[in-house]
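Reply to dn_fold:

You asked what the input looked like. This is it:
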Amino acid sequence: MDGALKPNTALDDAPAAVEIDAPDNLCSDGDRLVFSSGDKVFAFAPGSVEEIQGFDAPVTALAMSSAGDLAIGLDNGELGLMPRDGSPRELPATANLACPTALAFDEAGALYVAQGSARHRPSDWAVDLMSKNAFGSVWRIDLAGKGSAALVHQGLAFPNGLLARKDGLIVAEGWRHRLVAVPGLRPVLEKLPGYPARLSPAADGGAWLALFAPRNRLIEFTLLEDSYRQQMMRDVPREYWIAPALASGASFLEPLQCGGVRTMGVHKPWSPTRSYGLVVKLDAALQPVASYHSRANGRRHGVTSVAEAGGRVFAASKGGNAILDITDAAGSNP
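and this is what came back:
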């Protein structure tokens, strides 16, 4: 990584606005910050965290409209809408919408839904990646009408982030490490150094991109070795696969241990790693202009989403169990 992606320690240096187990799905209407942790949804204001709602399954996607309406996707495939004024309602779930990984409202009030895979739940993303699947799709739900879902594009390799812009819809395609515009599948930003997660708008007309794990040579090689990979998936516990992770270093059974330690027992920040923390600031043309890192020896890994709220910039480190306030870092690294 170099240029706008040159490594630094901005995420490890940033203060934690909230410390909570596996925060995810940051979203905002400009003032209010909402996020998930497990099967619960919370609202954050400086100095306080308030639980909004609990569910029967982990929350895997959130989106907030400009009016404050909250769309929710669950690991069991259910979709729901919590209007800011009004009663919550379940959106029509079909067999075609069973893996909600990202949600986004457009200016007309319609809801876009990214289905990561037609074969696995969002929580089984590692299985989908190591199976080399490309069964994801994007749908558009007409909330003003009957709530019917229309297919926008299919054949995607785990769409994991959505950004609705005036000039079209941008999709973060996880397993192909790129951003594309749909329909049409026009590449916007390719050859990303990690696996992209959520996209969110920035106040200056650009966007924020979270990358939840790094690419490395060992994982890329394992993806090429079909027989070995299939045996690994069959015989080895999932947490010890040669696969990306939201956090690492908790067990000596994990792969890539020897590459991370030198003679004096110091973990090298440039060593190979299964987990990493990375936020990328994109300009209006969706090109990288700045980045914020937690390197191999850091602990703010597994960043899955970024959102601006109340003039501040927040990043959810799901692997580091914290929501980080990166406003000062963003201000010093335009």
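The mean pLDDT is 91.
Hope that clears it up.
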